[in-house]
TrEMBL record:
<feature type="domain" description="M23ase beta-sheet core">
    <location>
        <begin position="68"/>
        <end position="185"/>
    </location>
</feature>
<protein>
    <submittedName>
        <fullName>Peptidase family M23</fullName>
    </submittedName>
</protein>
<dbReference type="InterPro" id="IPR011055">
    <property type="entry name" value="Dup_hybrid_motif"/>
</dbReference>
<dbReference type="InterPro" id="IPR050570">
    <property type="entry name" value="Cell_wall_metabolism_enzyme"/>
</dbReference>
<feature type="signal peptide">
    <location>
        <begin position="1"/>
        <end position="24"/>
    </location>
</feature>
<keyword id="KW-0732">Signal</keyword>
<dbReference type="InterPro" id="IPR016047">
    <property type="entry name" value="M23ase_b-sheet_dom"/>
</dbReference>
<dbReference type="GO" id="GO:0004222">
    <property type="term" value="F:metalloendopeptidase activity"/>
</dbReference>
<dbReference type="Pfam" id="PF01551">
    <property type="entry name" value="Peptidase_M23"/>
</dbReference>
Amino acid sequence: MRPLNGAGFALAISLLSAAVPAAAEPPVLDLPIDCVLGQTCYVEDYVDADPGPGQRDYTCGLKSRDDHRGTDIVLISFEAMEAGVNVLAAAPGTVAATRDGMEDVAVTDATRASIEGRECGNAVRIDHGGGWQTLYCHMARGSITVETGQQVAAGDVLGLVGLSGLTNVPHVHLGVLKDGAIVDPFNPENRDTCGVNAGDGLWRDAPDYDRAGLFTAGFSNGVPDFEDVKSGAARLPAATPDTPLVLYGHVFYARPGDVMTLTASGPEGEVFAHEVTLEDPQAQLFRAYGRRAPQSGWQPGAYRGYVQLTREGRLIAVRHADITISPN
C-alpha cells in the first residue's frame, strides 16, 4: 500500500486502523468498478468488524478476513480481467496520490515478503474533503489514467482491474478513510448490526448482502475427504498426465435450490463442465466433479478450474483453482 506519486500516501496508509465511527458529511458512494453485481462480479469480503484476532463482517457473518480494511469486489474470471474492466471513482474529489509499476502477478507465500509495504499494489487515492478519502487497490500495471491534483467526478475511469499487490484474484479493493482511520461503508457508524440489514450506509444504492459463499476450491486426484478439504490437505498443485483431475468447492450457508457449477480447462480447451443443484444443504458442504485422464494422458501445462455458486441465476461467489500437469 505505499509510497506513490504523493508524499502523503505512505502516511495515510500507515494510519489505517480498525473501523471507527464516522463523522458528518461523508461522500455518497457508487460502485467503484464497471461490472454488474450478481452477473459479472460480486462482493466477496467486507471490512473486518472484529477488533481482535479472528474476523466477522458487519452482519457478524463469515465474509471478511482478519484485519481486512476494505470492500473487495471480485470479477467472475481472469479472462474478464484480461478483456479489461474499468475501476471507477466512487465519488467526486481530487486525486491525492497514485502508484503504478507493480507487476500483475498473483501473490504466493514465496513472494509475499517482496511486496511488504506495497500490499495495495497499483493504486489511486482520492480526497473528498473533510478528512474523507477513498483508496482503490490492485489495479493493472500501466493502466492508471489519472494524476495527482486532478479533479474527478463519480464514475470517472481511474484505470483497470489488475492483479498487483497482495492478491491472487482479480478484484478492486475499496478502502474508505476518515482522518486516516478505516470506515466500513456498509456500517459507517460502527453500530451493532449483527444479523440485520444496516441500510445503505455510505452507498447511494448498497450492494445486496448474501450470507452464503465459498471458502475455497481446489484440484485433487479423487473425491477428497471433507476434513482434507477443510484443512487444505486435499489440494493438489501439480500432477502427472495419467492423474485423474477432480475439482471441488467448499460452500457455506447455501440454500436449497442454489446451484454449484464446476468447470475446468487446460491447454486443449475445456476439460469438463458440471452443474449440481443443492437440494438439502448443510451449514458447510463440498461438492466435487472430475474426469479420468484420457488414454494418451493430459497435455502437459497449466489447468484452471472455476467453482461458481448462484441463486436464482444471480452470482453469489466464485473460487478458482490451478494445477500444473508436468511431463512424465
